[in-house]
Amino acid sequence: MSNTPEETAEGSVTCIEADKFKAPPLLIGYTYDPKDAYGARNEGRLLSIRLETNHYCNLNCRYCYAKSGTDRSKQADYEVLADLVRQAGRLGARSIVVIGGGEPTIYPGFMDLISLIHSLEMVPVVFSNTVAIDKDLAEFLFESGASVMGKLDSLSPKVQDYMAGKNGASEKIGRGLQNLIDAGFTDVDDPGRLRLGVSCVTNRLNLEEIEEIWRFCRENNIFPNLEVLTPTGRAKEHLENNYITFEEIKNYKLELLEIDRNDYSFDWLPYTPLPGSGCLQQMYSMYITVEGNVRPCAPTKFDENPSLFQGGAYPHNIFKRPLARIYNDPLFHEVRNIETSLEGKCHDCRHLDECVGCRGYAYSVGVSEGKGPVEALRGECLQCFRADGE
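-> structure tokens emitted (390 positions)
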């Protein structure tokens, strides 16, 4: 293994010999290592797609990018989703991430969709708040070869309820997670390939809990998916005073890296968007909304940017073009090769083989500052604390 960065007492980053360390675990079907990501991109293949199923939800999370709630008017037709799964398979996809938009487990065709993905020998990956996951559903998901990304924004019921926008949410979330654990999701044969993860949106409300949540995950074979609160969706209305600073992002990532090295013998690049994982999904995945609009990822909302419209409408829609044609469009080709045109310190970073920063965050911030969509996407990663030469 190559040398990796380490924070010194003076606050700079140096390199250490990493022979005694191993790579941290991945969540099967959700995270792919850089070799797979670049390989798929270079060969013109997908590794996954992310599907919205419905925009209604049994919670009302204050940071929801899709602003989901009780409105049942936005729901995908099952046959359309099934066709997209098959199209993705023909483009090489190994997994289908059922991300919902709202809560996918309450979508009427949810179990049929999971069964279809499994029958096509792809991995179903389910993003769920776990509120509706009872013992029977947990066992069904386990037998269907699924990976599940649950929710754990806080170990404090008060904070979790507030972030979820509903009283009693913490208890229901915990019960659903326990049902998944009881079904066998944490009894893994390979500790490097996990089937259960929890997503935590880091912000000022839960910043002091991050270390405890991280250790809980490491001790229980759970993938920790720590995302930074992004200025998009409902967060701009309800949590605008809870964004964490550049320095706070740096500090908690370095603390988690030290924990992993000292206690679990894991080593990873601390500059990547997701601690212990990184994110290169724009190279190998596409995000498809309930309306059929295709984005590189959830916060990269090309379909809401009028400068990309043709004839008054967003053209990259699965009802107008097949998935393969959208995949091969010059715009999406540029997105997949964005490392060749990044700006700022991302431009010539020596870590581009495993990190291109968070393109969704760069896009969200850039367009809010009036930049064009591609210009925003090329922006310097505002979460990265790498100094020159590191």
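The first strand starts at residue 4 and ends at 7.
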